[in-house]
Automatic annotation (TrEMBL):
Domain of life per record: Bacteria
InterPro entries reported for this sequence: PAP2/HPO (IPR000326), PAP2/HPO_sf (IPR036938)
Residue span, Phosphatidic acid phosphatase type 2/haloperoxidase domain: 116-239
Name of protein: PAP2 superfamily protein
Naturally occurring in which organism (per UniProt): Ulvibacter antarcticus
Transmembrane segments: none
Residues of the signal peptide: 1-19
Short name of one Pfam family: PAP2
Alphabetic keyword roster: Signal
Amino acid sequence: MKKLTLALAILLSYSSINAQSSVSPYEWDWVKDGIWLGASLGATAYGFTLIQNKDDLGTDASALPNKEDISGINRWAAGKHDEDASKLSDIPFALAFATPFIMLFDDEANDHTGKIAGMYIESLATTAGLFTIAAGLVDKSRPYVYDESGDTDLGRRLKNNGQRSFYSGHVAATATATFFAVKVYSDFNPDSPATPYLWAGAAVLPATVGYLRIEAGQHFLTDVLIGYVLGSATGYFVPELHKTKGAKLDVYPSSGMSFTGENYSGMALRYTF
């Protein structure tokens, strides 16, 4: 953690030294962002402990869930178990993490590499925190648990890993990375003619991962859709929240008295349009 903080500080310092070449649309606050990043990493660590401590579905076939209990929107995927699709999904998933590095080739953005790197780490940590806690707290059988063809052995169907269908972490992380990359690029280059094509690519890549994860029997459609929405929202709004004064989206402390007469304090979200 200390090494990560030191490396991030060096990157941000280097970015500020070279900021004379271009103006960044973002600002970084070590207090707020430090708390945000620390909370996200803490949530991720806690989520992993929840995942590791999940119980197996049972000890014999009588514990297996009934396909008929699945909602109609998801039932068609029950029983899917394509291992090749699972391995194939890892390719666009891995490629997505490299997409923000396109900023290194952008004259407007590469002078602010440290700041962009900080926001990217923050985005991924936020996504990881949300996903691991959800995966640790929610027990939902993956589609392959319903595989009655004999291709998926009983031990795998009963193991606790099969209870992490909700929601798709692969899709969420992919969407976070791609939407973050295009959001930052478009903020630095608002008039670029390439932006619509980049947004199309940002949308297609996590959708492709989602399709492959369903075919692999790892997630149902709703798991993929939830991962897509949460991941893309994180990738888009984390940079938006770092916009300099005048940005449309802002988070600020708020306090007052409720209509019941009770005092309250917390954080408020404001969107100006």
